[in-house]
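Hello Y.,

Per our agreement to keep a running log of every chain we model this quarter, I'm adding this entry. I've kept the format consistent with earlier entries: sequence first, then predicted structure.
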Amino acid sequence: MIKKIRAKIGDSKLLQSDFGETLKHTWTYLSGSVALKSLSIIGIPIMTRLLTEEDYGILNIFFTYTVLAATIFTLNTHVGTGRYYFENDQDFKSFFGTSLVVSLSMLIATFLATVVYAEPIARFLDLPVICIYFIVPFAFSNVLKSFHMQIFRAKRKSKKVRSLSLISGYLGFVLGVLLVYLHPVEERFMGQLWAGLIMMVVSGSIVFYRLAKYIKFDFKWGHLRYMFSFGVPLMPAYLSGFILAQFDTVMIGSYLGKAEAGQYSFAYNISMLMVMVVNALFYSWTPKYFEYMKAENYEQHDKDTLKLLSIISFSACGLILFSDWIGYILGSVSFHKSLYLIPLIIFGQYLMGINPIYKRHISFSKKTIYTSVIVLLAGALNIWLNSIYIPKIGAAAGAYTTVASYMAMLVLTYLAVKYCIKLHVTPVLGIVARVLVVVAVCGFYYVDFYFLELSVFLQIVLKFGLLLVSGLLLLWKMFPFQSGKTPFAKNLFKKN
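Predicted structure for the entry above:
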C-alpha cells in the first residue's frame, strides 16, 4: 500500500511540475528548520537549569546585539549577493569576491574599535566588558552563514543550506552545554560564548571550503555601487523588522516585569513554527519567482503564489487549532497560562507570511527604499500601540499589536507595489478568500476557549473536523492529481 502511494505521488503532475520541484526544496528547508527549532526548544529547560537568571539574560541580550551588529557594521552590504546572482551569474564570482572583502574589512575595523573602546561600549549596552570582544566575531559568523545561504538557495542546493545549519546548530548546542557546565559557576555564560567562537571557526571553515570556487578577487566600482545601493536602503527595514519581532517582549518586560515577558516569549516562540513554514516555502520558490518576473509570466506567477498561500493557510489552521496541545507538550505547567495568546500571535505571523507575495516585487524593482519606509512605519505603529495598551490590558496587547502591525505592513506593501512601483500584483480576492478561512478557524478557537465547555473527545472531533474542512477549502482544487482522466484519489485506491 505504501509503495503504491509513493508511486502515485511520484507520478502525479504536481510533483513532476516546476511547482513540484519547489515543494521538494520546501521539505528540505522545512526539515532543517524544524530540527533547529526543536533544538532551541530542548535547550530552554537545559540552559535555564545550568545558568542563573542573570546569566541567561546576559546571553539573550548579547545574541540580540550580534544580530544587529551583522547589519549595522557591514552597512547591510552583504544581503544583495543572492539578488545579484539572478541578475548576472556570469559576473557573479567577481561580485561575491568584492562583497566578501568589503564585509570583512568593515568588520575588522569595527572589531578594532570595540577593543579600544570596550569599557564605554559595555556601559552603554549594559553588558560585561568581556562580552564586547565577542560581538564582532559572532557578527562575522552570521555574515558568512548569510553568504552561504544566499548563494546555495539561489542555486537550489537546499541540502547544503540545511547541512550547515544542522552542523553548526547541533554541534554548537552540545559544545555550549558542555562548556557552560564545565565553566566556573560565577561566569557560566562565558561557556556559551567560547562555544560560539569555536563554532565560528568550524562553520567558517565549511563555508570557505564550499564557496571558494565562487570567489574571484576582481574589484569593480559597479559591484560596490550595487552593494551599497541595494543593502543600505534596506537597513531600516532589517532593523525595524527586528523591532516588530522582538520589541513586544522588551516592552512587556519593561511595563509588566520579566515573568510576564517570559510567558509572552514562550507563546511567541511556539508561533515561530508558522514562520518556519513560510520561509521554507518562499525560500525554495525564489528561483522560480525571478524566472517568472523576468519573462513577465504573471499568470504562472499568480498560480504558484496562490498554491503557496494555500499551503501556508492550511498550516496556519493546523497550528492555531492545536497550539494549546503543542504548548502543553513543550512547556512546563508554569507557562501554560499564556497558551491562549498563541493562536493570535500565529495569525499575526501568518499575515507577515503573506507580505512576501508583494514585498518581493519591491526587491525585484530595486526600489528597496519603499520596504524601509513601510517597515519603519509598521515598527513605529507597533511601539505606539504597545505603549498605550500593554499597561491597560497586559501581555495580550502584544499579540493584538502584532496582528495590527503586520496587517498595516501588508496593506502598505500592496499599495506601494500597485500604485507607486506599478508592477503586477496577485489579485486580492484570491488572497482574501484564503485569509478568511484562517480567520474563521482562529475565531472558532476563541469561541471554544471562552464560551464552550466541551469534553476532550468533542474538542478532538471538532478540531480535526474543522481541519479537514479547511483542508478541503484550501487544498482540494490545488491538488487535482490526475492520471489520464482518472482523479488521483480514485486512481490511488482502486483495485488492480
